[in-house]
Specification:
By secondary structure, the chain is α/β, with parallel strands linked by helices. The chain is 39% helix and 14% strand. α1 packs antiparallel against α3 and α10 runs parallel beside α11. The longest helix has 52 residues. It is globular and about 55 Å long. The termini are far apart.
């Protein structure tokens, strides 16, 4: 018994010391890394701008990312809610700094592996690389900064702890998508899920997302995407509500959405206030993403059901009957679950988020989530 206690202390004390040291050095190291990420984003956008102007980047063949005959399917009049897209989760996140990795390793030691150290190994490629690989759906977490009325938005997972990002400046992220779209004018619709974060300890000038900032975000989207932005009004056309449109089984045809970007506001504390402005949502830029409890509401267009097994159970009512579009998750980094993937595909989910997407640097034996042969879109 004494020996067991000693063995525990031998392992626990160094891990605790390492955890304290990592926490002390985490924030300054995170700020240094953030400065690098900000500079890298600006440099990448400038280089992409020059490359597109010189026409040195070839357009993507959308047929190559579709599981089937895309031209025939588009010609047949397939509707947006009849298609499924592989999506990336935390689509902006880059390699974690060493201090954050040390924290995860120490927490893993202290909890005897309950807290998984490998979770910190998650990273995404740039939005351009993801688009080039056929990904047509992203998730971007945003933080709100308000400097004396000058409101801006940034993309990161959380201040202090996980600040590494390839999309710090949200406006530049929109520019990156817009430039790629200009180079691929007939691309399948891109869906962006915006998730406003509520942090426990905000950075200087960081504010909690509220209705005022949601409306400011609407304007940023309109300015950044221009005519590419496909709004709720564009989807509704002459219908008075999404309930009416869904009852008519009349989601827009995909061929009428080519070259467009659809933005979804992830369910958050501001969602109801955002809807209350105009319950038809015709005057807003974003589609509110709701939950299973909201499937009978007229304002419902998209819902989140991250448990694919649960979604499979309610598929008949939500997807087949009510014609609601759904986002689910096939996995999370460090937890590959083939049953979840099978359920996600069988459920008919329209957006299937994964931390194991097709990448530019995939090796032959890598686990990836696709519809086969690196295709990322299916019907």
């Amino acid at each position: 018994m004494i020996q067991k206690i000693l063995n525990y202390l031998i392992r626990w004390v160094p891990a605790l010391f390492s955890l304290i040291v990592a926490f002390v050095s985490l924030f300054p190291a995170s700020l240094d890394r953030l400065e690098e990420d900000i500079a890298l984003q600006a440099k990448r956008i400038s280089e992409l701008e020059q490359a597109y102007e010189s026409e040195s980047i070839s357009p993507v063949d959308e047929n190559s990312i579709y599981d089937g005959d895309l031209d025939a399917v588009l010609k047949s009049g397939v509707k947006f809610n009849e298609m499924s897209f592989i999506a990336t989760h935390n689509s902006y996140q880059t390699t974690a700094i060493d201090e954050a990795k040390n924290i995860y390793r120490s927490l893993s030691d202290l909890t005897f592996g309950i807290y998984k150290a490998k979770k910190i190994g998650f990273e995404s490629e740039t939005l351009t690389d993801q688009l080039e690989c056929g990904l047509r759906s992203f998730e971007l977490d945003i933080e709100t900064f308000d400097r004396d009325g000058d409101v801006s938005f940034t993309c990161m997972h959380s201040p202090y702890f996980e600040m590494s990002t390839s999309c710090y400046d949200f406006s530049l992220a929109l520019k990156e998508i817009s430039m790629w779209s200009d180079n691929n004018p007939d691309h399948l619709p891109i869906t962006i899920i915006i998730e406003p974060k509520r942090v426990f300890i905000p950075l200087e000038n960081m504010e909690y997302f509220n209705l005022e900032y949601a409306l400011a975000l609407d304007e940023v989207l309109k300015e950044g995407l221009g005519e590419k932005l496909f709004t709720p009004a564009d989807m509704l056309r002459d219908y008075e509500s999404f309930g009416e449109m869904r009852a008519a089984d009349d989601w827009c045809k995909v061929r009428d959405m080519l070259g467009k970007v659809v933005v979804l506001l992830h369910d958050c504390g501001v969602t109801e206030d955002y809807i209350d402005i105009d319950e038809s949502v015709k005057t807003q830029a974003m589609f509110p993403m709701l939950r299973e409890r909201d499937i009978d509401r007229d304002c419902t267009s998209f819902i989140i059901c991250n448990n694919p097994g649960k979604l499979l159970e309610i598929k008949g009512e939500v997807i087949d009957e009510k014609k609601i579009m759904v986002r689910t998750r096939a996995d999370e980094f460090g937890k590959i679950n083939k049953k979840n993937l099978e359920d996600a595909f069988a459920s008919g989910a329209n957006i299937i988020s994964t931390d194991y997407p097709v990448r530019t640097d995939n090796k032959a034996d890598d686990y990836i989530v696709d519809f086969g042969n690196r295709t990322t879109v299916s019907k």
